Amino acid sequence: MVALNLPTSGTDLPLIRRQQRNIFRQRRLLEAAEMIHRSLDSPSLETTILAEAVRLMDAQRAALLIVRGDVLVAAQTFGIDDALERLLVVPLVDPLFGRAVVNGETVAVDDVEAAGPVGGRLLGPGICRGLLTAPLQSYLGTHGALVLFFDTVQRFGDDDQALLHTLAIQAAIALDNRRLMHEKDQMAVRDGLTGAYNRSYLELALERSTKELRRNGGVISVLFLDVDGMKAANDSRGHQAGDRLLKDLAGLLAASCRETDIVARYGGDEFVVLMPGTDAEGARRVASKVDEAIAGHNDAAPGAVRLSASIGVHSAGRDDVDELLRVADRRMYEMKRSRAPRDGDA
């Protein structure tokens, strides 16, 4: 006969209930971590983190605070009204929130009212009585805090703090991994020197735009640019000077175009601006704007290597879109030949 180890007295029951509660919460922690990491490529990752934290800890509201200089600001909130959100811009020296970031510790406040003047700004109907704050810590460092707000006075134990601390680590790792994924995606489509889109991305964008044009009609335009005097700049000032010209031109192009336009480094010292929905007149205006931006750039830095670019402009519709780049390229070289005497200027 197998003997069962049943509690022998009522004094054992609270311990058993605590153990059962901890097992249940550990299971929920695993579920929360899984949900967070499944949401890695979702735009609602931050909301998922906060919703899971509220569910895990039986809180009423939550916030993700992110370090911005010497203050913490609310990057995302959950269940928080405008009155409380306005309060969530706090210095890193704040003992309720900042301590979690600065010292990397989980901070528990059972009763905010009893915390004295520090907690006074969090008091008020429907705002907060209990508070639990854990650092957003990962292998990349601590860059914020996960904060939970409770409507009633709490009795936080070490297990509560450890539970939220673990969830906050999972949240920080997820946020860092999403950022790294985004950076990797950007590296795949961006030119490493100038930050403009690369040729592969341009070709994909042109293919999509061509299909759209053939389906629905319309117009599309491009600017084809080539930096003048690049060899002379490299020979006289070094390749860093040539790189600077390329980076400066990429920045001026981005500033001169719409966000929906594609600014790409086509190769070497050539750039292409793809402008869907822009007609010939609009394309000429953009080309003029780029010329003015280049002139302003040279005026602002008279001692620097002079930036100059030949520009070919072309617009096309459904029937001649295949010629878009070729014609713009030809027009750019026609301009470059007409400016050949200035090509060696630096």
How does the SSE layout of this entry go?
Blueprint: H1 13-38, H2 45-57, E1 61-68, E2 71-78, H3 82-85, E3 89-91, H4 98-103, E4 107-109, H5 117-120, E5 130-138, E6 141-150, H6 158-189, H7 199-216, E7 220-227, H8 230-237, H9 239-256, E8 262-267, E9 270-276, H10 280-300, E10 309-316, H11 324-338
Helix pairs in contact: 1-2, 1-6, 2-6, 8-9, 9-10
Please report which band the strand proportion falls in: under 5%, 5-15%, 15-25%, 25-35%, 35-45% or over 45%: 15-25%
The number of distinct β-strands equals 10
Mean pLDDT reading: 86
Shape: elongated
Regions with little confidence, pLDDT below 50 for 5+ residues: 1-9, 342-346
Question: Percent of residues in helical segments?
Answer: 40-55%
What value does the Rg take, in angstroms? 30 Å
Biggest beta-sheet profile: 6 strands, antiparallel
Report the end-to-end length measured between terminal Cα atoms: 98 Å
**What is the CATH topology assignment of the largest domain?**
Beta-Lactamase
Strand order in the largest sheet? 3-2-1-6-5-4
Our count of domains comes out at 2
The DSSP helix count reads 11
CATH superfamily of the largest domain: GAF domain
Q: Please identify, by name, the CATH architecture of the largest domain.
A: 2-Layer Sandwich
Q: Which CATH class of the largest domain applies here?
A: Alpha Beta
